[in-house]
Amino acid sequence: MDPQEQTQQTALAEIGEFGLIALMRETLGESEDESVVSGIADDAAVYRTGGERVHVLTTDTLVEGVHFDRAFMPLEHLGFKALSVNVSDVVAMNATPRYATVSIGIPQNVSVEMVTTIYEGLKQACNAYDMHIVGGDTNASHGLSLSISVVGAADEDEVVYRRGAQVGDKICVTGDIGASYAGLKVLLHNRERLQEQEENFQPDLDPYSYVIRRHLAPPAQLTVIRDWADAGAQPRSLIDISDGLSAEVHHICEASDVGAQLYEPALPIDPETRNTATEFEEDVTVYALFGGEDYELAFTTPEDDLETLDPQTYTVVGEVVAPEEKEEPVTIQRANGQTIPLQPGGFDHFADSPPGQ
Amino acid sequence: MDPQEQTQQTALAEIGEFGLIALMRETLGESEDESVVSGIADDAAVYRTGGERVHVLTTDTLVEGVHFDRAFMPLEHLGFKALSVNVSDVVAMNATPRYATVSIGIPQNVSVEMVTTIYEGLKQACNAYDMHIVGGDTNASHGLSLSISVVGAADEDEVVYRRGAQVGDKICVTGDIGASYAGLKVLLHNRERLQEQEENFQPDLDPYSYVIRRHLAPPAQLTVIRDWADAGAQPRSLIDISDGLSAEVHHICEASDVGAQLYEPALPIDPETRNTATEFEEDVTVYALFGGEDYELAFTTPEDDLETLDPQTYTVVGEVVAPEEKEEPVTIQRANGQTIPLQPGGFDHFADSPPGQ
């Protein structure tokens, strides 16, 4: 196909990011190499390295103006977050992150000192996750960008995929959700007021310190999977919450050919997240289901296996159900007892305009 | 360090790309993990995966307006080239490429059909190199960009580094050099004439088909290292020619603590490259030494070991010498018999303004 030809062209918005990934999988074809355990289908790829061991490989990019705003993202946090989002994908396979490469795109208005600060954030993340940056690449670029690849390691039978959920499993999430989106709302609101040069406006971010930190420097949940390993526990399906809980539960349902029922009152939401949503006169459940960038884990496991886990580390938010029970694979029971279908990335019953970044 | 502070800021141009890589190495520190055989020091990182096996990992990005011009880079070639430049780094460690991830940045003026064409180019490259794209990531972006990471495999004692050159080794290159830069010159010249809407101008690219192909779709030299393996041969030092032969020989000398003497008449240059330089009234030796993007291999090996190699596959272009013999680590003997020092990235004796992109 010649791109210069004036043939019918389809806008990317029509198929979206998930459509583009599906297009890549279709165009390239599934690998039939026996060493490839899992390709473009999960949070990270899995391939055998000999014996029982496998490595997992993932890549993720943060782009200025798309994933972050340099006006309120300290560069040290940017380095930390760029590595964290990749580590989160490795952890979401129940694997241990080991090695990373960093490809950094640098515009002309970024100085050597600023790049050093980004590297320092990367180093902090390396120390936090006990891993090693082994390679790098720098390029001139229109906007600042950080493209990182991470290799992780596991025994082949330790790896947990999206596809393992079974009817009757409890659906659980670690930590709390919706805080990152609440933090983003506060940061955007303050930037707006600063830009409008509102008289006597002094941003007071103290009441929002938790939600802002969750947005700027979210940690990957490596300690959770270490605790599981210590307890001899292993969930049946696992994913990290980068696009919002609703999207991730839909991913698990699609990969596992099951349905899911969530319970709104059970969603773990920090009081600061609730307060922020109240101040913006918005429904905090929307933050929790669709906000994204929490980098907590969602997993499913039989109820009996939950006994082996520290109850401080997770919350049961729903149950895996048979797919034929209803048209919509995922439903949610609201606080008023009403059960309604849930869309992956938008929720008309909760908000006229679902949050998007 | 707070980037918001009005402290002294250093422009990136002052330290350059190699300075930025050194800065990354300094800020992050060398890894002391025993599984890391080699970090940020060569074409790719090397880490142990168990037993005698190691994996190598490299990452490289092509950015629109920096590394390519969409006006004359067919998107299929872009996909092919983006994978090739990464495979070349793996081959430059004497390792076999296995798995890749692709992170693609897509601006609004790129359609689904255009992305499909890029994926088709990636697929061609996967087939050519017998490897597998196992993961992907797509992002909105200001310009088109392709950031690729490749994992390769080798036995630990098969890996060849930049640092192994010894005094007396012959310096060799595979294939021919300078053609990619000649192709770029032709493409830039034609674009200029088209933009000026020169009357009756019809580009005739037939006489330049080889050099243009070398610029748009350079193959990585995987067959060369396979031939070496079949012959039981292994060079002492090895690097791929991405930044021009002069820069690469300087890298080998620095890593190996040796000097080098090159012979201008020996440089392998295709007749089409010579003709192109003649038409532009430029010195073809400048193309060969500083043009870059050839993705051939430069290696050093004892003279006796050359007998095991197919003489069709390489050219001897110089010799490794003791570092203390002269101030400049690399010199070149010109066709007129005069020996002069060689700079890594510019050559005042050959050209007033060395080529740059």
Describe the structure.
The structure is a homodimer of 357-residue chains. With 357 residues, chain A is of the alpha+beta class. Chain A folds into two domains: 12-158, 2-Layer Sandwich (60s Ribosomal Protein L30, Chain: A), CATH 3.30.1330.10; 162-341, Phosphoribosyl-aminoimidazole Synthetase, Chain A, domain 2. In chain A, 31% of the residues lie in helices and 24% in strands. In chain A, the strands form two sheets. A seven-stranded mixed sheet of chain A has the order 8-10-7-11-9-12-13. Chain A has a six-stranded mixed sheet with strand order 1-2-3-6-4-5, covered by helices on one side. In chain A, α2 runs parallel beside α3 and α4 crosses α8 (271-279). Residues 347-357 of chain A have low confidence and may be disordered. Chains A and B meet through α1, β2, β3, β4 and α3 of A and α1, β2, β3, β4 and α3 of B.
Strand order across the largest sheet of chain A: 8-10-7-11-9-12-13
In helices, the fraction of residues of chain A equals: 25-40%
Distance between the termini of chain A: 33 Å
CATH homology superfamily of the largest domain in chain A: PurM-like C-terminal domain
Tell me the radius of gyration of chain A.
21 Å
Q: In total, how many domains does the architecture of chain A comprise? A: 2
How would you describe the shape of chain A?
globular
> At the first level of CATH, what is the class of the largest domain in chain A?
Alpha Beta
Percent of sequence in beta strands of chain A: 15-25%
* Secondary structure: number of strands of chain A: 13
Structural class of chain A: alpha+beta
Question: Major sheet of chain A: size, sense and barrel closure?
Answer: 7 strands, mixed
Q: What oligomeric state do the depicted chains represent?
A: homodimer
Task: Name the average pLDDT of chain A.
Answer: 91
Please give the CATH architecture of the largest domain in chain A.
Answer: Alpha-Beta Complex
How many individual helices of chain A? 9
H/E series of chain A, N to C?
HEEEHEHEEEHHHEHEHHEEEE
Stated plainly, the CATH topology of the largest domain in chain A is called: Phosphoribosyl-aminoimidazole Synthetase, Chain A, domain 2
